[in-house]
Amino acid sequence: MSDVTMEQPQVADRAPQPRSSLRQPRLPRWAPPAVAITAAAVGVAIGLGAGLSSRIQWGLIAALLFVLGMYGLAARVEGRRQAKDRLATSLVWVCFLIAVVPLLSLAWETVGRGSKVLDGSFLSHSMSGVLTIQPGGGVYHAIIGTLEQVGIATAIAAPVGLLTAIYLVEYGRGRLAKVVTFFVDVMTGVPSIVAGLFVLSFWILMLDFGYSGFAGSMALAILMMPVVVRSTEEMLKLVPNELREASLALGVPKWRTILKVVLPTAIGGIATGVTLAVARIAGETAPIVLLVFGSQVINNNPFDGAQSSLPYYIYEQWAAGNEASYDRAWAAALVLIAFVMILNLVARGIARWKAPKHGR
Amino acid sequence: MAKRIDVGGLNAYYGNHKAIEDISMTVEPRSVTAFIGPSGCGKSTFLRTLNRMHEVTPGGRVEGKVMLDDENLYGPGVDPVSVRRTVGMVFQRPNPFPTMSIYENVAAGIRLNGGRVRKADMDAIVEKSLKGANLWKEVKDRLNKPGAGLSGGQQQRLCIARAIAVEPQVLLMDEPCSALDPISTLAIEDLIGELKEQFTIVIVTHNMQQAARVSDRTAFFNLAGVGQPGKLVEIDDTARIFSNPSVQATEDYISGRFG
Ligand SMILES: Nc1ncnc2c1ncn2[C@@H]1O[C@H](COP(=O)(O)OP(=O)(O)O)[C@@H](O)[C@H]1O
Ligand SMILES: [Mg+2]
Questions:
Q1: Which residues on A lie below 8 Å from B141 (Cβ)?
Q2: Searching chain A, which residue's CA lies closest to the CA of residue B80?
Q3: pLDDT tens digits for range A112-149
Q4: Considering CB atoms only, which of A244, A253, A265 is closest to B98?
């Protein structure tokens, strides 16, 4: 047994002692990776041997072997409590991998295929006058569309959502607050196509406005608002009540307390929440198809006429179904992912910059 | 500028729960009054009725009157915001504003109220308040560092500086030392002794020795049982309360035979 025990504390007299009840044999540090490698090898062997064609099955077999192997080994060497700990740890690791592998492969695939036609000309040209079967053309009109539609949607949804959250957390008591919370919950569950249909029937069919980026923005705002409300609410609830009381006890009115103490304390989290909500709507396709209609040419005016947008462009290029349009679809997907990534980074930057300061 | 507080027939509720009942007492200006009593007897609740902070709690409600010199805090048309400017408060846990520097924390009471004060004047106010709170020497070289970076005792003195910067007439302190080590506690007790030259001070404490050391008068609160409202048992000169109280329950509590 002593060959698997390691890392014992360096006690001066290491002479044979009775085994302390406080010290138990531990698996060495390299045991988990070793088990993982073995499990992976065995998984591949079983997969090949049994002729399983799906790599995913290989992976799952290896994962199962890893979890069982760690549990068995720990149960033999370290005892039952440690074995349960190892079981939970290895399960968490496996779940982490299962979550991360598709994500990485997605990023890999998109970068690999998208970078083929992604260059300055792709970013600065529209599809005007380009046949879908031809290579060339670009995504500029879609970028303009996405920026404008998402920008307007944010300009509508962020203030409304922010104020709603402030009402719910700081003022809302009784019936009205419950009703508002209920509707926010309902709105969270509205599918994007339904939001699109709602604006379509209301704005385009009833009020007889034409297709426009703005119509799409309204649908996006409907989708964004509940997300902003929810995340802002959570952030405001995190602000300790003591700070509000400290401010009120100084004779500061409630509205100033909210504006000058509560919001600055929570602003990092709120900005992150808003940015994530923006990222979420930037990828919406359904309402755009219904309300913005799609376009091949640059239209800088979001209030008049059809526009394109990145998700719509991807959909359209993919539907065209030929080599050149596939390339463009992947490149546009890469642009969209980059856009969302940049937003996330900005949010993190703001959160770090604005975080309450603790240093000496 | 210190003012006399005169409380008459005061009840305070949390929703339907009556937390304190029929409290009447007088607090003299430029004196320190200590509140003692077992946990849950309503000391904090009563303290918070003295600057209308009680009604900040959802369901919080007050009956009765609190006279500040000759003005009833609960009279019609009284603005709780102005009351709180006159009657300052220091809380049990130090709560400096985490987004603000030491300087900004002290200036907060004035700045958050939208006061336009010249930089030089503000510097003077901040220095005076920090000196008043015995903190100036320790922080004068790092006024622009975050207030949250100070030690617990320093943070509490920062909160006291913040409270006295708006020049209140009464200062309420709810167990201001309970989260602090003995040395910081001593620093704050010394400070209380100095502050009473200018302010009327009311302090809640669980520490008998502290009450005996810092206060001129002591009020003992008690409650008949769980769920019953807390009541004022007696208020008297501190020396008398600790040597020869007129009520048996007070003596039991002070000598540790109870609570
Ligand atoms: N926020 C609150 N909501 C409801 N009841 C409360 C609240 N705070 C205190 N109470 C009740 O009021 C009574 C007095 O509490 P408190 O004033 O905090 O006592 P003390 O400060 O003397 O320990 C207690 O019974 C307590 O349960
Ligand atoms: Mg208390």
A1: none
A2: A251
A3: 999 989 999 999 999 888 888 888 889 999 999 999 99
A4: A265
CATH of the domain at A318: 1.10.3720.10
Closest ligand 1 atom to Cα of B57 = 1
Compute the C-alpha angle A5/A6/A8, nearest 5°. 105
Residue pLDDT, tens place only, B218-252: 999 998 888 889 999 999 999 999 998 999 999 98
Q: How far is the CA of B80 from the centre of ligand 1 (A)?
A: 21
Tell me the pLDDT tens digit for each residue of A175-221: 999 999 999 999 999 999 999 999 999 998 999 898 999 999 999 99
Shared-domain flag, residues A185 and A320? yes
Cβ-nearest to B84 among A248, A261, A359: A248
CA atoms within 13 A on the CB side of B105: 32
Q: Which residues on A lie below 8 Å from B162 (Cβ)?
A: 246, 250
User: A41 is written with which tokens?
Assistant: 């090898």
The answer to whether the Cβ–Cβ distance between B149 and A357 falls below 8 Å is yes
A166 and A281 belong to one structural domain: yes
Domain boundary among A114, A130, A156: A114
CA distance A271 to chain B (A): 16
Q: Is residue A118 within a helix (H) or strand (E), and if so which, with residue range? A: none
Amino acid at A248: L
Decide if A127 is inside a domain.
no
Q: Is the shortest distance between the CB of B24 and ligand 1 below 6 Å? A: no
Chain A residue with minimum CA distance to B172 = A249
Strand order in the sheet with B5-14: B71-72, B60-68, B5-14, B17-27, B230-237, B217-223, B32-36, B200-204, B170-174, B87-90
Question: In this structure, is the dihedral angle defined by the CA atoms of residues A184, A185, A188 and A191, taken in order, positive or negative?
Answer: negative
A274 and A325 share a domain?
A: yes
What is the interface pTM, i.e. ipTM, of the complex?
0.91
Residue A119 lies in a domain: no
Question: Do A110 and A147 fall within a single domain?
Answer: no
Do A180 and A271 reside in the same domain of the chain? Answer: yes
Any ligand 1 atom below 6 A from CB of B16: no
Contact A256 B112 (CB under 8 A): yes
In the reported structure, the alpha carbon of residue B204 is separated from the centroid of ligand 1 by a whole-number distance in angstroms of 14
- Which residues on A lie below 8 Å from B145 (Cβ)? 359-360
A208 lies in some domain: yes
CA distance A287 to A198: 10
B161 lines ligand 1 (CB under 6 A): no
Name the residue range of residue A63's domain.
2-114
Q: In terms of Cα–Cα distance, which of B89, B81, B144 is closest to B113?
A: B81
Confirm whether A305 is domain-assigned: yes
Q: Do A235 and A198 share a structural domain?
A: yes
CA-closest residue to ligand 1 atom 1: B57
The closest of A256, A239, A244, A260 to B56, measured between CA atoms, is A244
- Read off the pLDDT of residues A69-90 as tens digits, 9 standing for 90 and up: 999 988 888 888 888 999 999 9
Q: Please tell me whether residues A158 and A284 are part of one structural domain.
A: yes
Domain total of chain A: 2
Give the residue carrying structure tokens 């091949």. Answer: A296
Instruction: Name residues whose C-beta falls within 8 Å of residue A357's C-beta, 6 or more positions apart in sequence.
Output: B98, B99, B146, B148, B149
Give the chain A residue nearest B162 (alpha carbons): A250
Residues A107 and A145 in one domain: no
Return the structure tokens found at A298. Answer: 């640059």
